[in-house]
Amino acid sequence: MDHQTEWRLDAARNLAEKLKGKAGIRAILVGGSAARGYSDVYSDLELIAYWDRQPNKEEKRAIAGELGAVHRYPKIDHGHESALEIEGFPVDLWHKSVSEEEDILDRVFDEFSTDLGAHNVVDTVRTGIPLYGEELVRKWQERTEQYPDELARRFLDEYLPHFHLRQLHFAARRNNPAAFFNIMSNIQSSLFIVLLALNGSYFPTYKWMFKRLHELPVKPENLEWRLREMYRESPTEAAARMQEVLEETLQLVEAQYPDLDTEFARYGVDQPVPERFSDSPFE
């Protein structure tokens, strides 16, 4: 375990000791970068307290006071309530009810929802480290161990059509870097979701895209380097590299799901380089 992760986990254990005796708290989980082993010098600490009900504002305020915490952001910020600062260090303390968490798990595993917010919750549960109420958390984690095939298929059906390069080719040739990088970033994001589905991996948020890609076994060769290079090379070279990556990804999809309809995705990947029309073809 690296130093940045280790001391954050030590801090989480100390905070959990102060929280676990509170009436109504069923479990405490450390999530985020510390639980995933992704912490760097900019990482905060994410703690989730699971209650048998939704706590009221007075209870949350009392807990923050007992922890010696102050709010990092003003009330106009949507993260005001959960974003705390303890001893000058940023701590996100989330309060959730057990039923709320289990409803999200049901949406993903029973209804096969492709909502990315719900999948981030699942990934947090899967990678989280229980500091209290381990039996409850382990029960949830058992549900995450088997990634449903139907869920993978739904993600592939939804995100493979984003493998479309027509507008990327145009933006690469029109000296429009804002449009080019916007389109390219969106395609890379969809590629990430496709590869998560192929590997039976849940969504850690785009913030951790490259760290999670590094962990995935099924992906195009040297993928992380190739995706980063697209932001350094010329737009036309980047578009060509993107075409290669998407083609290789489609081959992986078709090998794993030979019955899946990839016709439109292949149409999008095989988009030709735009023709130039300097002079009128009309007489």
From TrEMBL:
- One Pfam family hit: DUF4037
Q: Which InterPro entries match?
A: DUF4037, NT_sf
Q: Which residues form a coiled coil?
A: none
The organism's superkingdom is given as Bacteria
The residues forming the signal peptide are: none
| Domain named DUF4037: residues | 134-209
Protein name listed in UniProt: DUF4037 domain-containing protein
Give the organism the record lists: Bhargavaea ginsengi
